[in-house]
Design a protein that fits this description.
Layout lengths: L15 H28 L2 H27 L14 H29 L6 H28 L3 H30 L4 H28 L9 H9 L4 E13 L2 E10 L5 H16 L3 E7 L7 H18 L1
Helix pairs in contact: 1-2, 1-4, 2-3, 2-5, 2-6, 3-5, 3-6, 4-5, 5-6
């Protein structure tokens, strides 16, 4: 075994449920996208065409998600020591960006249609939208079930796509009904713009979550100061600094810290105790704990202040 190939924790994700879910979703989405594009062109409905444009983004998004899941199964190597887990986040960011671009395009086209209204084939529009509603309800339920079994930001972004699709289908149906009873074709672009705003909201949410991971921010589920306090309570620990906690990918966290310890205690015992606490209390298994003492490791003014504090405490105890 080569030493550089060994990892005590595998930086890979075998997500069988997510793979199966995304394959089913991709096949159904691709089929209905073709149906909706044809229906939108024949009926001349902007609401239907905006929904089909969103469906095209779904196909691209699902393709990226599938690529990310397969990349995540590849083993780490000398260049990519964390494996390819981060590709999942990059794919999610691109998915969120695609949602916002599509939403902007829908709003722009909606404004044009409001200025220059166009007739639509209400019957065909209603039939296609009803089929779409059924398909999107099924896909949303499938993805929601998958999210309960495995946490995956790509599946979550795909779920947001289909929640947008579900609302789009409802909007198209509502648009057709309002046009039928009022004769005002302005409802078609108006509702398409509302759909665009909903899609944009979902995209912004996915982009925010992706950026937090890419910027190596502390995950929302953790309180860094609470973790620091619990590390300080481990026997022999005098001070915790240079504490960093970030997500490599969804449900895959890393923590590093420098720890001052008493000179009379075994360093390995401290490391074992800290790692046990982090795993038991927070589920954090990938850690790097560096044991230090300011008398041996230069920490500048911070180290001097710490030594003065220790000396003062020793004098008081005497």
């Amino acid at each position: 075994m080569n030493h550089h190939d060994y990892h005590h924790l595998n930086h890979v994700k075998e997500q069988l449920t997510s793979k199966r879910t995304l394959w089913i979703t991709l096949a159904l989405t691709l089929f209905f996208t073709i149906v909706e594009i044809v229906g939108g062109l024949l009926s001349n409905s902007l609401a239907l065409l905006s929904d089909s444009a969103h469906m095209i983004s779904d196909v691209i998004a699902l393709g990226l998600s599938m690529a990310a899941i397969y990349m995540a199964t590849r083993e780490p190597n000398q260049r990519y020591t964390f494996g390819y887990l981060r590709f999942e986040i990059i794919a999610s960011f691109l998915n969120g960006l695609a949602l916002i671009v599509i939403a902007i395009g829908i709003v722009i086209e909606g404004i044009k249609r409001m200025i220059h209204p166009q007739d639509v084939d209400l019957q065909l529009m209603l039939i296609i939208a009803t089929i779409g509603l059924v398909v999107n309800i099924v896909l949303t339920l499938v993805l929601s079930h998958s999210m309960k079994e495995e946490e995956n930001l790509n599946v979550k972004s795909a779920l947001w796509h289909f929640i947008g699709d579900l609302l789009s289908s409802v909007g198209v149906i509502l648009s057709a009904i309002l046009i039928h009873f009022t004769g005002l074709y302005i409802f078609d672009p108006l509702i398409s713009m509302v759909i665009g705003a909903i899609i944009c909201t979902g995209g912004a949410k996915i982009i925010r979550e992706s950026l937090l991971v890419l910027m190596e921010a502390v995950p929302d589920k953790y309180d860094l100061e609470q973790i620091r306090a619990e590390m300080n309570q481990v026997e022999g620990v005098e001070d915790v600094h240079e504490l960093h906690l970030w997500a490599v990918s969804t449900d895959h966290y890393s923590l590093t810290a420098h720890v001052f310890i008493r000179e009379d205690i075994q360093p390995f015992c401290v490391i074992l105790a800290i790692n046990h606490m982090l795993k038991a209390n927070y589920g954090i298994e990938h850690t790097t704990i560096q044991i230090e003492h300011p008398a041996m490791h230069d920490h500048g003014e911070y180290g001097k202040q710490f030594l003065q504090h220790i000396e003062s405490a020793s004098v008081k105890s005497v």
